[in-house]
Amino acid sequence: MLKGIPKILSPELLKVLAEMGHSDRLVISDGNFPAESMGKDAIVIRCDGHGVPEILDAILQVFPLDSYVEHPVNLMEVMPGDTVETPIWDTYKEIIRKYDDRGDAVVGNIERFAFYDEAKTAYAIIATGESALYANVMLQKGVVTD
């Protein structure tokens, strides 16, 4: 165990976060996301017993968001015609505001199939047991300055 590191971050996940470089992307996926098929060229880490918000909160304690792109955080857009509500997005924005002074401005949306294409090029995918729909979030790593 280490001091100051959220206990939810396993040694495997900490290793991956430390290995990632500037502009590498990380997907934190909900329970419906096809993590294994999307992650054929990525590291897939299973966190099935956890939800996306608790993983996101823990990661942002140690993971800087990219300051060189407009949206270093991206959500999967709801498909036209779907009547799904996404209150979890508000939870994500609340968490992000705790760790990044740019607040909600860092959050963008990517069309569902474009999100899948981007996920296929991610450095790693964290597969959670999150049951909320459209709860996938992609983070782009920034530079550690301190």
TrEMBL record:
EC numbers, comma separated: 5.1.3.-
Protein's UniProt keywords contain Nucleotide-binding: no
Superkingdom in the source lineage: Bacteria
Signal sequence region: none
Protein keywords: Isomerase
Pfam families: RbsD_FucU
Top EC class, one word: isomerase
This protein's name: L-fucose mutarotase
Lineage of producing organism: Bacteria, Bacillati, Bacillota, Clostridia, Lachnospirales
